[in-house]
Design a protein that fits this description.
Helix 3 packs across helix 12, helix 9 runs parallel beside helix 10 and helix 16 packs parallel to helix 19. It is globular, with a radius of gyration of 26 Å. About 1% of the residues have low confidence. By secondary structure, it is α/β, with parallel strands linked by helices. It has 23 helices and twelve strands. The structure holds iron/sulfur cluster. The site of iron/sulfur cluster (SF4) has 14 residues, from helix 14. Iron/sulfur cluster binds next to helix 14.
């Protein structure tokens, strides 16, 4: 499974395949509409949702402003509770640390809790290269892993699969990963869940090393928190002798009182539940209970650079609820794979180009993968103004020059369309600063309106392929004003 952006085409090209797949579009439409309706009902039950949302935004902003101090406090707390903290500047360093930690146990397999951070750094692939097998235990992640597929949603990585596709994957693939699917397995959800349960149980009972991420880390006590719906996370966090958690540095919150806000915002926004069925919390190690060794790998991997951007840093407030994906008209049609990242949808469009930079075709195209309708901002429980960040990143792409492929290399230079856009804006600025030129141009356009083309030539062709060119009025506004108002109010 390769989740890197290397070699991915730009978003419009990558999305075309999904747009032509009717089954995929049907699966996505059904799933996103169901989740978004449930979320709306769950949020409407809370009378102070707006205040909670504001509190979430403020706590995250405060924490990000003082991130260095809270991370040091977290390290002290985790260490005092018997854990070991490791700092990883990038994916390579994080993968090396985890691989060495697993090797030190003498084990050659690990069980995993669903984790975006470990997908981001492609930990499974790094472990596999070192001869260590990583088994995903979240049901949707299991489906993706067995199907040698890529995740397409933050919360429901196999959202693009329907029940019969999942049955076929279980029937054909489970045996090569462990316990085979039961004879005569149907596409009944209860039967599919039971097949997964039996398949995973032997892995839980055998595993000596567990690998997780975390939804939150509480600085004051060094406590890590994982919220989930299936209970697989609880098994991975408690049964193995060694637990390794890889967590992005932005996941820290200062106190338990702060955590209380997010434990209300997250479940209603993600699974439309009043609270998560399983909320696991652990603080270092405890004699006779749970793992004997606990390692926390704090991951930067582009987050410090993102923090330096005054507009873009708000993306670090994200609590990965996926509400923005479920309401996005672009995600609903294109699906998650077209985003070329483990972070798809609106949050992926603003997070990936910041974490990875805009040097690849896919990352330079992501800020344009939006209609700027603003639905993502409306539902975001921490009020990330995604449209604002998208426009900001578009500026960065145009100013810095988008990435283009030159043989085997990706180089930064202004693309034709953007150069033309810049030239058009310069010409417009010049004309708007000269009223006489503007008036002459408007009159000329009105008199020649019969010759107006239906489509624009050159780079403008793509714009008119799906839109009508606006009609030119028979009389320019300024002439109409002079004729009807007789030049009053200083109009000339
Ligand atoms: S950007 Fe907001 S809505 Fe989207 S996943 Fe993050 S927290 Fe949820």
């Amino acid at each position: 499974m390769n989740t890197t952006s290397l070699g991915m085409p730009a978003f419009p090209k990558a999305a075309r395949e999904a747009l032509n797949n009717r089954t995929l579009r049907g699966n996505l439409r059904h799933a996103t509409h169901t989740i978004r309706a449930k979320r709306a009902r769950a949020v409407a039950e809370v009378s102070d949702w707006a205040e909670l949302r504001e509190a979430g935004e403020r706590i995250k902003d405060h924490t990000l402003r003082h991130l260095d101090g809270y991370l040091e406090q977290l390290e002290e707390s985790v260490t005092a509770a018997g854990g070991t903290v490791h700092w990883a500047a990038d994916a390579t360093e994080a993968n090396r640390i985890v691989t060495e930690l697993v090797r030190a146990t003498g084990e050659s397999e690990v069980v995993k809790v669903k984790s975006m951070a470990t997908q981001e750094i492609e930990l499974n692939e790094a472990l596999e290269a070192a001869g260590i097998h990583a088994y995903e235990t979240d049901l949707a992640e299991l489906i993706v892993q067995l199907g040698e597929d890529r995740p397409s949603h933050i919360l429901v990585p196999a959202i693009h699969r329907n029940r019969s596709e999942i049955r076929d994957i279980f029937r054909t693939r489970m045996a090569s990963w462990g316990r085979p699917a039961p004879e005569g397995l149907s596409d009944d959800p209860a039967e599919l869940a039971e097949a997964a349960r039996l398949h995973l149980r032997e892995k839980f009972l055998r595993a000596k090393v567990g690998v997780s991420g975390a939804n939150f880390m509480v600085a004051e006590t060094g406590t890590l928190v994982v919220v989930e719906s299936e209970g697989n996370g609880r098994m991975c966090l408690t049964l193995p002798e060694t637990l390794i958690s890889v967590v992005g540095i932005e996941k820290v919150v200062p106190t338990w009182r702060d955590l209380e806000v997010f434990l209300q915002l997250l479940p209603r926004s993600s699974t439309a539940e009043r609270m998560n069925p399983y909320t696991s919390m652990w603080t270092g190690t405890t004699d006779g209970d749970g793992p004997r060794a606990f390692h926390l790998v704090l991951l930067d991997n582009g987050r410090t650079d993102t923090l330096a951007d005054e507009v873009g840093r708000q993306a670090l407030r994200c609590i990965r609820c996926s509400a923005c994906l479920n309401v996005c008209p672009v995600y609903e049609r294109a699906g998650g794979h077209a985003y070329g990242s483990v972070y798809p949808g609106p949050i992926g469009a603003v997070l990936s180009p910041q974490l990875r930079g805009t040097a690849s075709e896919i990352d330079a195209s992501l800020p344009y993968a939006s209609s700027l309708c603003g639905a993502c901002y409306e539902v975001c429980p921490v009020a990330i103004d995604i449209p604002e960040v998208l426009v900001h990143l578009r500026e960065r792409v145009v100013e810095g020059g988008p990435a283009v492929r030159d043989g085997n290399r990706v180089v930064l230079k202004p693309a034709k369309g953007h150069a033309a856009e810049r030239a058009a804006m310069r010409a417009a600025g010049w004309a708007l600063a000269r009223p006489g030129v503007l008036r002459t141009g408007q009159r000329l356009a009105s008199r020649t309106r019969g010759f107006r083309p239906r489509t624009l030539p050159g780079p403008g062709r793509a714009w008119t392929a799906t839109r009508d060119l606006p009609a030119v009025p028979a009389e320019p506004f300024r002439d109409w004003w002079l004729r009807t108002r007789g030049g009053k109010d200083g109009a000339r």
